[in-house]
Write a structure and sequence with these properties.
The protein is built from 18 helices and no strands. It is mostly helical and 440 residues long.
Length: 440
């Protein structure tokens, strides 16, 4: 019997039931960095604060590469739900946890070269590097559990169990924040205490997540060996994860390039861009929520061979995405100056950010179709096309930047707008052919 929590037609309520909990889950994640910074900041050392901030960025970048474990699991689980294949639903979870454990252990084994490469690229002071090493030496052992949490989250979303996914994410984050505060300030462990809090929270989250999954499966986590290592399914999983990883790497390059070009323009421009990018990221969390809804709805529709449900999932995800993006853009246009002033006390940064505020308001609107179609393509397991179209969009991004580089920071922001529009546009153009191939 299938464990899916959603059934029937695709409605506004169904889209929101998936999107809103996942948006809340996404929004809680930045709080971890804020709390860590606030807690370590109480120690009174700029080097320690900078070290924790830099170490957090290193782990964010490291684990972002493995986001395919969540996205791929959503698509595979959702399609199993659509086919009402209870055996494959369990197998998707088991294979995902197996891959996550193997990759996590590999990260732990390679911890020394990873640390050396990260510190070399960062180029921070020795005092900051010392704090990074203290934090890194502990948190790196959370890798297998962090990746397992990605799989559990993806599996629950694939089954439409977003309430449980949200509860687990909130539990991990709240425990992390509480333990960090207690160990850093209460126990006096300093930077290692912050890392230990994250390690324990990730372990607890993985254990709780597996327990939740076991409960949904009636305590039957086991999968027959023949099903677990089915050659066709394993190849599908590996190819899917490979394509999503390449797509994610291209996306990381695009944002890193944006930051690097801002830095070349000077400290004021770099800071102004960072302030505006933070505003854009908040809107992106909402768009991610609707992309997640598209993953589940379109994935289950493909599995069930329901073209009408698939089309409705695409349409409603985009409609709600545009509604929130337009609202966010309007809010930024009206309250943007006040937000900028709250995020920076520098008169130069405030003035510079105001010059480019319009771009921050336009970016969420320009990115609606890019986010929504990412969800659609992931749910439908069209990972090869998504990868190729992302790479094509990256070429557009770099081409526009080179053509407009004489405009300075305006050219950089226009290139980012072109990048988002190209991603959504290319995927929209490719969609009809893929729908015909999938549904006949």
């Amino acid at each position: 019997m299938s464990l899916a929590a959603v059934s029937g037609g695709v409605t506004h309520r169904r889209v929101l039931a998936i999107a809103l909990p996942m948006t809340l889950a996404h929004l809680t994640t930045p709080l971890l960095g804020v709390v860590d910074a606030a807690v370590v900041g109480r120690l009174g050392s700029a080097a320690l604060l900078g070290g924790v901030a830099l170490a957090s960025v290193i782990f964010d970048m490291l684990f972002w590469v493995f986001g395919f474990l969540r996205m791929g699991t959503v698509g595979l689980a959702a399609q199993a739900v659509g086919r009402r294949d209870a055996v494959e639903e369990r197998a998707v979870l088991a294979r995902g946890l197996l891959v996550a454990g193997a990759l996590g252990l590999l990260i732990v084994l390679l911890r020394t070269p990873i640390e050396s490469a990260a510190l070399s690229l960062a180029g921070a002071s020795e005092e900051v590097n010392a704090a990074v090493r203290d934090y890194y030496a502990i948190r790196i052992f959370a890798a297998p559990f962090t990746l397992a949490n990605y799989v559990v989250l993806g599996w629950l979303v694939g089954l439409g169990r977003t309430g449980r996914a949200l509860a687990l994410q909130l539990g991990i984050n709240v425990l992390n924040m509480g333990l960090s505060a207690a160990l850093v300030l209460g126990a006096g462990w300093g930077v290692p205490g912050s890392a230990a809090g994250t390690l324990v929270a990730e372990i607890a989250g993985a254990v709780a997540g597996v327990a939740v999954c076991a409960g949904l499966l009636g305590g039957r986590l086991g999968v027959a060996r023949a099903v677990l290592i089915d050659k066709a399914r394993l190849i599908e999983t590996v190819m899917l994860n490979r394509d999503i990883m390449i797509r994610t790497a291209a996306l990381m390059f695009a944002f890193s390039f944006f930051a690097a070009q801002g830095a070349r323009a000077g400290d004021v421009t770099l800071a102004a861009n960072a302030v505006l990018q933070n505003m854009v990221m908040v809107a992106a969390y909402f768009l991610d929520g609707f992309a997640t809804a598209a993953e589940q709805i379109c994935g289950s529709a493909v599995g069930a061979r329901r073209k009408a449900d698939f089309s409705a999932g695409v349409r409603l995800s985009i409609v709600w995405g545009f509604a929130f993006a337009v609202l966010a853009g309007a809010v930024y246009l009206v309250t943007g100056p006040a937000i900028v002033d709250a995020m920076s006390t520098s008169p130069e940064v405030r003035a510079e950010a105001r010059v480019f505020l319009l771009y921050a308001a336009l970016l969420p609107v320009a990115g609606v179709t890019a986010y929504a179609f990412d969800g659609v393509y992931i749910g439908a397991l069209w990972s090869r096309d998504m990868r190729n179209l992302m790479l094509a969009s990256l070429v557009v991004y770099l081409g526009v930047f080179l053509a407009l580089r004489s405009l300075g920071n305006h050219g950089l922001w226009l290139a980012m707008l072109a990048f988002l529009l190209a991603r959504g546009g290319f995927q929209a153009l490719r969609l009809p052919a893929l729908v015909r191939r999938t549904f006949g």
